[in-house]
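User: Show me a protein chain along with its predicted structure.
Assistant: Here is one chain, sequence first, then structure tokens.
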Amino acid sequence: MNILAFETSCDETAVAVVRDGREILDSAVLSQTDLHALYGGVVPEIASRSHLEAIAPLTRTVAARHSIDAVAATAAPGLIGALLVGLNFAKGYAMAAGLPLIPVHHIRGHIAAAYLSEPELKPPFLAAVVSGGHTLILEVRDYTDMRTVGGTRDDAAGEAFDKAARVLGLGYPGGAALSRLAETGDARRYPFPQAVVRDAPFDMSFSGVKTALINLIHNAKQLYGDAWAEETDLPSVAASFQRAVVEALTTRICYAAETLGYGTVVLAGGVAANKSLCASLRERLGDKIRIPPVPLCGDNAAMIGSQAFYEAQSGAFAALSQNAFATFPPGGRALCCG
């Protein structure tokens, strides 16, 4: 089954064709990073307009080379305007071609990225989805049966990295820049805090560590004025901040795997590209951990096409009245509306 998939939940316009949920036949991703860098973050209106401009040309490039059996699109969660561009384009394509429509949850898509790089991977397993907008720990009991067991109470881990990078003057997107800066720093020089959520051992909070970094830089600016960057060990600040976030994630993910009895753990989402987090989990979990290659960690349509195959097998096809949702739990009731 060849599925033409669309992903437009944030600031990447992505189109792919995936066969039987496991093989990428074609994939294209157009990033909007340069457009949003000027503003220090994603501007929803600019994102939506850019999707409108890019989605048809990308589709012509990708879909023309393959026979298509079904159409899929991210329907939730994400920026609502951006989601609607991809979903409505998918509706139009499905209607014109007489093909079924499959709505896909973005978080489920990130988890499915591992199916594309790990041919033997099958549920059940534990999954941690860590990105700029989401930080969740889920039990993947079957391909379409998932239960959230933990997550952040405030900022997502990727959001915390991006905000910290902005405070340090590293620009947008900042997560990768902060990680590079941290490579030459002393990760134990600055004792950043780690929050503990009472009665929720798999939950996390990153607002406190972010505030601690903001206060540290604010004090440096008060002491040194315009020379604050030269007088501050910025690589060690970055390394210490990264260490606090990575330890919080690693501790919760490993504890959840041990407590719930899972022998396989999948790390997915944009922050799965963070070398420090990958190294920490590999040290703790060994060959139990599965991490997709970097191109499949960020937003892409191949992961949506992969998950769509399993949604189709469960009968989760949608009517053309299917709506998009800015928020929607990855488990529970079906995302499709008919």
